[in-house]
User: Fold this.
Amino acid sequence: MARVVLVGNLAQVTGGVAEFDLSATSVQQLFRQLGELHPALAPHLESGIAVAIDGQIFQDALLEPIGPRSEVFLLPAIAGG
Amino acid sequence: MAKHHIEATVNGDPAEFLCETEDTLLDVLRDTLDLTGSKEGCSSGDCGACSVMLDGRLVCSCLVLGCEVGGRKIETIEGLAKGESLHPLQRRFLEAAALQCGICTPGFLVASKALLEKNANPSEHEVRFWLAGNLCRCTGYDKIVTAVMDTAAAMRKG
Amino acid sequence: MRYEAPESLEGAVALLAGAKGEARVLAGGTDLLVQMRADVVDPELIVDIKKIPETRTVTEEKGGWRIGAAVTGAELKEHTRLKQAWPGVVEAANLIGSTQVQGRATLGGNLCNGSPAADSVPALIAAGALASLAGPKGRRDLPVEDVMLGPRKLALTKGEIVVSFLLPPRPARSSDAYLRFIPRTEMDIAVVGAGVSLSLDAGGTITAARVSLGAVAARVLLVSEAAQAIIGSRLDKAAQDRLEAAARTACRPIDDKRGTIEFRTDVAAVLSRRTALIALDRARAN
Amino acid sequence: MPETNGQTNGQHYVGTRQVRPDGVDKVTGRARFGADFNLPGQLIGRVLRSPHPHARIISIDTSKAEALPGVKAVVTREDFADQSSEFIPAGEMMMNYKDVVRNAMAREKALYEGHAVAAVAATSTAVARRAVKLIEVKYEILPHVIDVVEAMKPGAPLLHDDLFTVGVEPKPDKPSNIAKRIEIKVGDVEAGFKKADVIVERLFKTAPVHQGYIEPHAALATVSEDGSTELWTTTQGHYIVRAHCARLLGLDIGKVRVTATEIGGGFGGKTVVYLEPLAIALSRKAKRPVKMVMSREEVFKASGPTSGATVWVKMGATKDGKFVAGAAELKYQAGAFQGSPVQPGTMCAYAPYDIEHVHVIGYDVVSNRPKVAAYRAPGAPISEYAVESVVDEIAKKLRLDPIELRMMNAAREGTKAAYGPKFGPIGLEETLNAIKKSEHWNTPLRKWQGRGVASGFWFNIGGETTVSLTVNEDGTISLMAGTPDIGGLRASLSSVVADELGVPYDKVRPIIGDTGSLGFNFLTGGSRSAFSGSMAIVEAAKQIKADLIARACKLWEAKPDQVEFSGGAVKPLGALAEKVKPMTIADFAKTAGKTGGPIGGIGRINAQGAGPSFGTHLVDLEVDPETGRATILRYTVAQDAGRALHPAYVEGQYQGGAVQGIGWALNEEYIYGDDGKLQNAGFLDYRMPVASDVPMIDAILVEVANPRHPYGVRGVGETPIVPPLGAIANAMENATGIRFTELPMSPPKVLKALKEKGLNKA
Assistant:
């Protein structure tokens, strides 16, 4: 099971729940599973979200694999000047 | 009223143009003579991107009226390189990465050439104050000042 | 918009006097063109005075110097003997804008733009310069401090122009200086400007002095109390304090984007002292 | 990097200081920037802007303007369909199309002085100027609010009556100027403070500052009767401009071709649209090309500065200097529409440090100012300035060397970042060590001189990137990239191409392709273009090498294991080497038609694996106690580049960022009157540093390779503007003993503080 942590305001949508253990093996599955657990979260996962898998930040990477013991953080997307 | 008919010398060639009283020399160079190397950054003499030589004197072409230059000699960035070869300042700016976006570069080159013609051995202080009217937002001036001083040293050696 | 470049004073005066709408004199143009671009002014007539010989020459006259109103700062800087006689006036003219601007900007333009922050004006006033005017009624002279009445307001009558400035002869052991405060090292309008001209006797005591402050009131001030504060002294600490106090009292500044009343007053005192000390050193060297 | 690359002589160009391929055009005046493009029959466009900071637009009468001879088109709000509420990335922040259309052209209300209200296209500049003055707009003037704290107060003038604060529970039932509340929480900050022996708490204020690019915004558009649209504009992202314009004007993306001109500086400010949709709308009406160029005044009044902010910081440390807790509250101005960089501000505030308990709250607040745009590490300089100031105070309280204190708490590989995930390999410690070892750090100071140090962080990003490599008939290489070259990109990428294909640097010719010539690229921003572009080039080069190896095998009737690609040629191995000679890329190019046709590769990636870049700055300054003016005496930057593709242009990023930071710290600010109007909309009174204001900027390149990039590259463009504000504030404290908590530290403020302490005597 991957350890999944919501950073910032996302936890508000889940009524304060910020940590999950999920069996997802890709970012796409992760989003689907989170959406099923907390339907209110689903729209927030469609854009403006970055995913840090074991310390590495990915943006718009639905197909990125997630390991069984991965530590995953959901962050606001980042761009820059 | 009718436009002014002006004859001047631009980069050594005779130039003839019509302009309204309110047209600046910069307007004339860019829009009438298609010499777009001189840039408009502020139109108020505060950025130096439009620097040209007028009868051997460094000026902002945005602060000169087109109708003032009849019979006078104007040198712009387009006249800096002679024939095949770049001016030593142009070469040094390239080698020293003294430009990033490049919008201020024509003004800096024209102003730096004017400095080296007056002072073949300027101190860093003199270079910085001479060029204080040329704004650059990319480089922090370091590589520009260095390039000007290196060029001066190279030109002194000949 | 008409543009005329007469070659005689009479021609220029006639054009200006006869203008229907707003008429502007063009010297260096470093203020006029900016105001035109910004739609602040939209003159019907522009009279370029640079083709009139008297406006473009620097000549020695009765032991003093006559400077054409349309001589540029850069040209003044290259005039070795003028620079030696009036270093403060020349350095003030060369604090106006950038190298590029100094290639165009003139003493006449700097005065007639009517800004209390004009850099060359305090230096000219401290120097006791006379402005030589030409108008429909002929020529007259005005002390520079009487030319500007307030922001953008001049004592010139319709058709009248500033042709040249006369700087008086310099006795031995005399000199002048100008300092201004700006937040950057270059390119700003003076937040405070201070001009000081003084003469010493053989013993190094100040026998004559003029002190002028810019950007601390609606017009550039000639501060006689400040001059009195140092005349008869060798600019010792006590005299410096009197000078600073007099400068403070004279200030009637405003709060604006360039500085506060408090800041301008404090800095005016500091600058008048620093400027006087520079003038003193120079005078001793002469 | 794979050793099969590089030149036959083993030379590599990556890491060397090659002359930029676009350089000659830029030193001769040939290079064409935004305002240098013209088309036959072109009209001049000009914008009418609101003189009021906040006013309802009752009516706009354009009839007199339209009647003026030479006027060919006038557009107003009527010419832009309203947009549904949908968030899209713009620079570093999400922006809503509902707002984008309103910022491009005011609808119900003018929300800041300079807000576009109408635009005209005429046969000359003079006619366009006159026409704009003939447009009659009836305004109902409304009370305005400029300051962020004022804007947050209940009863403050309301900009948008449909703006309800997001991120607060329960959902507010009344609209306000607070668009969003965000929160970053790690550990239990209260418990953390209980462990602290020393706690420092401060309130800071920063002024809005403009990116200050020397080239004003400019656009040239031509729309034909069938709706096909061409646009030349100065932008950091022409594909983003295409997307915005297509959306705002209801055009097929495929019908809009955008060419990015040479760009005269952007720093984040050229990531959004201003003139572009207006020029297209005017051209569509006039059926003639329309050129629009902003004046400098318009740039200041109507294009994005970055936020001014109020920042509260509270940090706790043990007596031996370990940081145990960090709290902060950030209030960022967004300008007239939501979308300030407060989100990255909250995430960056404590990023340089290993702190167990962190709690940062941020507010995104609208007020009657121009909508902010990205500016170099958006949001980070503001929050990190506040934290670095407090870190300095903690060092002083504990009598610890400020570098030692930072070293003790520095984030390193494996540290859990204050915004959540663990860091990979990073170089903060290395930059601190580099500064500590520098001769600068060890030189003595005199009275009224001060020395300050501060560190800074930025994430960096990758993103969607396409490049194409074409092998020409003579073996030279054409490189096409789609991210505007804002400061040496072509030079950096050409070095990578030369090394990947083993061809000489001067045989690579780079261009920036238009949106019709190359696949999608995200914009130049987030310090991504050299990072992502070089990754995409490696992909494209792989395709070419594989193709050449395949062709060689066919020609030589050999197996792949009998050949290798190295030094710019396919070489036969072993016995085969007796029979055939190596074939260079040029050999293949000559006969390409006979071996399968043109040779080339296209790299299409969504670059991931961006490595954060940390930097540490060291500054000496001297204060004139009688005038309050600070002079920067000496400056040193140390920053982690991962791997510097072109060291000179990396140094240039460090030096330029430092000087922008000097301006931000000392003199730059938007000054508003009580009338809500900007008083310093020009380079005369918006005081950016000039050459005589600054010393040489020593640049130390630290290289801790980014393992996720084939060359180890990290983005370098943004981090350099993060540390200067804190470093200079710390140097001011060191020089005067006074902690300045408000930027800019301009002479009037400094003198006032010195007077209050009776220090204003030399």
